[in-house]
Design goal:
It is a single chain. The radius of gyration is 22 Å and the shape is globular. The chain has a domain of 136 residues: Rossmann fold. Helix 4 runs parallel beside helix 5, helix 5 runs antiparallel to helix 9 and helix 7 crosses helix 9. The relative contact order is 0.16. The model has no long low-confidence stretch (mean pLDDT 93). It has 322 residues and is an alpha/beta fold. The protein is built from 9 helices and 14 strands. The N and C termini lie far apart (51 Å). A 9-stranded mixed beta sheet has the order 7-8-9-6-10-11-12-14-13. A hairpin with a 4-residue loop joins strand 8 and strand 9.
Length: 322
């Protein structure tokens, strides 16, 4: 078991503490939070050990989870990595691309493993369908949430859309060619609703919409590729594949057959891959433990986290041009 600690004991930090405690792959050492009063209350209520300083916690661990505000990610990660400890850092990896690149390179220099908390990569609907997404050429995503003051210190792009940016980058095997976007600040000082169009070198186009002022929740993605349409509902944890193949000459009466303008007949097939229920945050933490043990690149590496942030910042820069 890996000795693990958590930096930051807010809403998400408490979730990480609970899951690390129940995991058979980790030995939870404790946590550090700058709010001493809150730390005492958490220690009293849950029994997790509160450390007097960040350095004391890092010294006691083999792996540290960073769940502090994004503005502090770089400073925390730098201390963890320089101490030679493995690091799991919540999204977005850092506040700037330069900081992310430094963290990525620092981890390589100190020979430690790092993973970014992009939880949707471990969503069972996405993992059930990912292997079927082979060469998407058009992608559309909608991530809508009701307003919550927590997280509004950053743009909706870094708060919500980055989940879809990361998922898209994981399946499109091509460099980003161009980004265009628009965003509107409604309640916050930063954009609360945004739309972005990402064009890739291979011709793929992704259209992303994110809102944190919606009246209903939605987390859906649709992938279109040659002879197939794939949908993922991250919220309801459902997925579907609609495939089109050349229709047989003797198609039965109940078969769905379409004929295009050239007279080519295609038969439609529906697939609903089995979705296994899981705890995605626990899965990503345990996946990281396995990567450390096997000394292999984690599922969501620091490099991938850096690229997701790079695209997110390209989108945000587009807002400023409007």
């Amino acid at each position: 078991m890996l000795k693990a600690g958590v930096l930051g004991a807010g809403h998400l930090g408490k979730i990480h503490l609970k899951l690390l405690k129940q995991s058979e792959k980790y030995d939870l050492v404790g946590f550090y939070d700058a709010n001493q009063q809150a730390s005492l209350e958490i220690e009293k209520e849950f029994g997790y050990k509160s450390f007097p300083s960040m350095e004391a916690l890092i010294d006691a661990c083999e792996m540290v989870v960073v769940v502090t505000p994004t503005s502090t990610h770089f400073a925390c990660a730098e201390k963890v990595i320089k101490a030679g400890k493995h690091i799991f850092i919540e999204k977005p990896i850092t506040q700037t691309v330069t900081e992310a690149e430094q963290i990525r390179d620092l981890a390589k220099k100190h020979k430690v493993r790092g993973q970014v908390g992009q939880v949707e990569r471990f969503n069972p609907a996405f993992t059930a369908i990912k292997d079927k997404i082979t060469n998407p050429m058009f992608i559309e995503t909608h991530r809508l949430a009701e307003f919550n003051p927590r997280g509004t210190d950053v743009s909706v792009v870094l708060d919500l859309m980055i989940h879809d940016i990361d998922a898209i980058l994981s399946v499109v095997k091509s460099d980003v060619k161009n980004v265009s976007a628009s965003g509107v600040s409604v309640l916050s000082e930063t954009p609360d609703i945004a739309n972005a169009r990402i064009e890739f070198e291979n011709g793929c186009v992704a259209n992303l919409t994110a809102s944190r002022i919606s009246l209903k929740k939605m987390r859906k993605a649709r992938f279109f590729q040659r002879d197939a349409y794939i949908s993922v509902d991250f919220l309801e944890k459902k997925c579907e594949v609609v495939k089109m193949k050349d229709a047989p000459k003797d198609a039965d009466d109940f078969a769905m057959v379409l004929t295009n303008a050239e007279g080519v007949k295609k038969q439609i097939y529906f697939e609903n891959p089995k979705v296994e229920n899981n705890n995605a945050i626990l899965d990503e933490l345990e996946s990281f433990a396995e990567a450390i043990k096997a000394d292999r690149v984690p599922e969501v590496s620091l490099g991938q986290g850096t690229e997701a942030l790079r695209v997110a910042m390209m989108i945000i820069e587009n807002f400023r041009k409007i």
